[in-house]
Amino acid sequence: MATIDLTGGQSAIPYDGLNKLYRIKNRLDFSQVNAAASDVVEAVQVKPNTHVKQVYVKLVAAEGSTATCTVGDSGHAAGLIATANLNATPGTITQNTISDTYANGCIYTAAADIALVPGNNLSHAIVDIIVVCQDLN
Q1: 71/77 Cα distance (integer angstroms)
Q2: What are residue 94's DSSP bridge partners?
Q3: How far apart are CA 53 and CA 16, in angstroms?
Q4: pTM
Q5: pLDDT tens by residue, 22-65
Q6: Domains identified in the chain and CATH numbers
Q7: C-alpha–C-alpha distance, residues 98 and 59, integer Å
């Protein structure tokens, strides 16, 4: 199992934006960087004192064969999204739900990485990871 750092997505904290909501979005293109089953793909970096309220996986391009993933952090690999189908119809969106460990989001008091862990080898899928955050500073 390897760790692949693909953080560096688009994010912005609003001007005078302390204590406001913002989103972080990162596109993971597995046709450019392949990932093996059980690799840890770091997708989004969260700064300290952040409440991650919602997490979404939006499928841009399907893998072409059976492919799933989980989304979580170093404490719970499937804590935010227990399973997302990466071979569904492009445009399919999966979000964290009541059955997930962090159904109501998670407060991070230290910097953290939100990571995707594939259940299968990925070489064609393209996904957007979207994280809705609230700054608690």
Answers
A1: 6
A2: 57
A3: 20
A4: 0.88
A5: 889 999 999 999 999 999 999 999 999 999 999 999 999 999 99
A6: 3-7+18-135 (2.60.120)
A7: 21
